[in-house]
# Entry
Amino acid sequence: MTLCTEETVYIRGRKVKFYRGGAGPQLLFLHHAFCPVWLPIHETLAAQFEVVVPIHPGFAGSEESFDEFEEMEDLVFHYLDLRLALDLDRPVVVGASFGGWITAEWAMRYGATLSQLILIDALGLRVDGAPAADVFSLDGAAHVRALRLSISRQSAIELLSLSNQNSNADYLGRARRFGCAGPWPCLSRRNHRF
# Structure
């Protein structure tokens, strides 16, 4: 079992909490909106990578100055600054759901600053013939079903538990702030960049 540490760094005067564990090539994991903690997937990745899991601005442990972020590009710049502050040289960047939206925007604009891009159920990327649920309108149990997770799996149980502890309305408000007028942001018009 890899031990992770909980650390804090200040980016442009804003406190940012993050988790770090493992050794090897650098991997930055941008979490989804409902689970800003160290998870079994991070543990698995830490067997081969140095994993860094920062908490998004406005989320538990990084609450400060969320009102300074007016659009998605502000979050992208935040993570570019974090990358420099933590001396992450062209890391592998993994983004899940809301974190995938940020990661996709980052890769489309500043792809030379990362070595690989991995998206897990990224918001905003539409694929013909594969409709997706508006995850921000779902409660924890519906979220797990939408992600097609088996409730018998420990990771699904943890996700369900954490989702029910948080207010979906809070996360919905945060997502909508970045231009998500409906269930999806406007990334689909730029899908060709991938």
